[in-house]
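We now fix the convention by which a protein and its fold are recorded. The integers have meaning only within a learned vocabulary of local backbone shapes. A complete example follows; check for yourself that the lines match position by position.
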Amino acid sequence: MVGDRSRYGLLVSALGAVILIVSVFLPWYEVSFTANGVAFVSQLGDQFVAQFGNSHLQSYLAPLHGSLAALSGQGIGAVSAHQVLHDMNIILIVLAILALLDALFPLALGASVVADGAGGAAVLLGGVAAVCVVFRMISPPTPPGDIVSLSLREGAWLALLGSMMMVLGGLWPRAATSVGVPERSAPDLFSGLSGWTPGA
């Protein structure tokens, strides 16, 4: 039927919203020591040994300086958006829930025809979510002191995927319909010629 929005688009938007919600609790950033962070930890160790240690402790900790230097740039853990993006994660979850409701409500009605424009709000909600995710991918939070650095993990990419699926579902093309040329019956074709005879 003309104007019937494909149900597949609503399902794509709903799935994207679920992916976005789940991604908030997955690792977004890998945490690794910077060169300054390694030097800071080494300095702390030296100060501790100088103040509280003895010669035995000094000889024990001396080889650890080389091991600490090898940690520069190596991942030491991961954090999720829920842990470091305290305001952004709430915004993303709210946007995803609104898009999920917008996509599932027309399907829950059980009508044979989905209203034209159903799920359209998912385009705006997914677009806002995508902008927020891209911003935090380009500009991750900066830890104080330049001791550790953050690099992207799979959670951020999944959040971007979910946001784009929300937009795609909202823009999903309407159900295609076959529009044929109406056939005219034989009596209609010759209705104007009724009464005409070859010899007249």
